[in-house]
Design goal:
With about 550 residues, this protein is of the alpha/beta class. About 35% of the residues lie in helices and about 15% in strands. Strands 1, 2, 3, 5, 7, 10, 11 and 12 form an 8-stranded mixed sheet that branches. Strands 13-16-17-18 form a 4-stranded antiparallel sheet. A two-stranded parallel ribbon has the order 4-6.
């Protein structure tokens, strides 16, 4: 009987131990939770060329963006798909290229042309995110796509700062009056419908002793911070996609006085290459329509050095003003305790000529207008990568797949970019062989953006348009055709590691031979002063073959 009892006890003992082990394993299963998806802080800056300390600017004062770059990864060779607001933003936000989504100028709303396309924040919403934005992300506020791209409104109800509704956004009474006068003068001279084309503009810049929040970007930064806090309070366990869009340094250059005072005007250097490229396309540059529409800016002729220095000073003041708002937003992330699970990406929609090549504005196919700042920071970025710079060719259209992959999301089938996530671990690996940008004839576009209206020729821009046409006719001779040059001529820029290759052709008939070709060697001529296409026919043929492969034929080969 004793033997039986011992055996029974032994079996019971092992059975009991087994239950404990199984129980512990089951308990382990219950405590293992899926890692929370990373938040996204999406920092959009309008018209910002790489005039930033982190990019080597000797004058720009941008400590907050520089700090982000020093702990993240900076892309030296990032390019927009079209250097003007609406096409660039529509492209990067949909992950598709301008001609694919039929947005190649500023007046086409991407959603009307592509009703069912899934945008970047919309994709995150579909995967459990809360998405919200303040300021300029899409081209216009009325095109902000609330209800599809954004899951909620910003936290206006949590704001303790009142939004300024000053006329024209100006703080100074004299500038408000100048703005009204400019509009009135245009109406008196050209009729009541003229201002719809943007002719009656106020001053191009303003220096005023006001708080940051008086101007819209300072207000929108505070709104973004309030929205962040509101999201974390209401849905602390839900990942977020927060877009903060800054309109400066887009015209008009309005910035608080303290940011102007950061700069000594005497130390501001003007453009080193004030002339267009030798033998370049006469249709490749424009008469600075956007700037000339401002009150007090000459309607024709060159911008003198004194004014040019003031204008660049105004641009730099706005850059520093925006940098301060970026710093406030990143500090708010840290104070909220969520930076360690937030991906930060900072970008601009295109560059901007500050007298370079003799023009003021964006909207060209050259390096100065298509190259953009692009910086990314991730919580798990390897220590040896932090603070590095990558010379890999990347494009804004690549942001959609990159952020999606970093968040572990599958991609929609329409995506035309390539995730640059592999560069976050090896920034120097072999990557794309080319980046692509495009712009329709800048010389004969309204504001270098939309097809010329009849009204443009009837205003003070008429003589400028005639002057440009004269130059094009002189260069292109019997190829000149006004309807073709105004409405169907597209410049396509291919940027390789060494060359900028620009092909001018009829975008409605892509099979036709190019009208004109430009070629710039960045090893010998980084500011693109001489078109060497005519002297290098073999190289042109080689690059044309590469160009004809398109973006698909120049993607990086990723070894998995």
């Amino acid at each position: 009987m004793q033997v039986v009892n011992n055996s029974y006890c032994k079996h019971f003992f092992f059975f009991f131990i087994g239950l404990i082990v199984v129980g512990c394993q089951e308990n382990k299963k219950t405590v293992v939770t899926e890692k929370k998806k990373p938040n996204i802080l999406f920092l959009a800056i309008d018209d910002l060329r790489p005039e930033i300390g982190a990019y080597g600017s000797e004058i720009a004062i941008t400590p907050n963006i520089d700090k982000l770059a020093s702990d993240g990864l900076l892309f030296n060779k990032a390019y927009c798909q079209q250097p003007i607001c609406s096409p660039s933003r529509a492209s990067l936000m949909t992950g598709a290229r301008p001609e694919t989504i039929n947005v190649i100028e500023n007046w086409t709303y991407f959603r009307e042309a592509n009703p069912d396309i899934v945008t970047l924040p919309q994709h995150f919403i579909k995967n459990g995110y809360e998405a919200v934005h303040t300021g300029k992300i899409f081209h216009k506020d009325k095109w902000s796509d609330v209800g599809k791209s954004w899951s909620r409104e910003p936290a206006y109800d949590k704001m303790t700062i009142k939004k300024s509704n000053a006329p024209g956004g100006y703080a100074l009474k004299e500038n408000q009056e100048f703005s009204k006068k400019s509009t009135a003068d245009v109406i008196a001279k050209y009729g009541k419908n003229a201002p719809r084309n943007g002719l009656g503009k106020g001053p191009a810049y303003e220096k005023a002793d006001v708080p940051d929040s008086f101007y819209e970007d300072g207000y929108n930064a505070e709104l973004a911070i309030a929205t962040l806090k509101d999201m974390l309070q209401k849905n602390p366990d839900k990942p977020f996609f927060l877009g903060m869009g800054m309109k400066k340094p887009h015209l008009n250059w309005l910035a608080p006085e303290k940011y102007w005072d950061l700069y000594d005007p005497e130390k501001i250097q003007l453009a080193t290459e004030p002339d267009g490229p030798k033998d370049g396309a006469t249709m490749g540059l424009h008469p600075s329509f956007e700037l000339r529409a401002r009150y007090g800016i000459p309607k024709k002729g060159p911008i003198n050095n004194e004014m040019a220095r003031t204008l660049k000073h105004a641009y730099l003041a706005c850059v520093s003003y925006i940098d301060a708002q970026v710093g406030l937003m990143i500090n708010a992330l840290e104070e909220a305790g969520v930076r360690d699970n937030t991906i930060i990406i900072l970008w601009s929609d295109h560059g901007w000529h500050l007298g370079d090549m003799g023009i003021w504005g964006k909207a060209t196919n050259y390096e100065i207008a298509t190259r953009v700042p692009l910086i990314i920071w991730t919580p798990d970025m390897a220590k040896e990568v932090r603070g590095k710079k990558s010379d890999a060719l990347v494009e804004l259209v690549d942001m959609y797949p990159t952020l999606s992959e970093l968040a572990g999301l599958d991609l929609p089938k329409h995506i035309e970019g390539q995730s640059f996530k592999p560069l976050l671990t090896n920034p120097n690996q072999t990557w794309k062989t080319a980046a692509f940008s495009q712009f329709p004839n800048p010389a004969l576009r309204e504001w270098a953006a939309n097809p010329l209206s009849k009204g443009m020729r009837e205003t003070y821009f008429g003589p400028l348009i005639e002057e440009v046409e004269g130059k094009i006719k002189e260069q292109q001779k019997d190829k000149w055709d006004r309807e073709f040059f105004e409405n169907r001529l597209m410049g396509y820029a291919m940027r390789t590691q060494q060359y900028r290759f620009i092909v001018w052709k009829d975008y409605t008939q892509p099979e036709k031979e190019p009208l004109f070709i430009e070629l710039y060697d960045h090893n010998a001529d980084p500011t693109e002063t001489i078109n060497i296409a005519n002297d290098n026919p073999n190289l042109v043929s080689k690059l044309l073959l590469q160009f004809n492969k398109g973006w698909k034929g120049n993607m990086a080969t990723v070894i998995k």
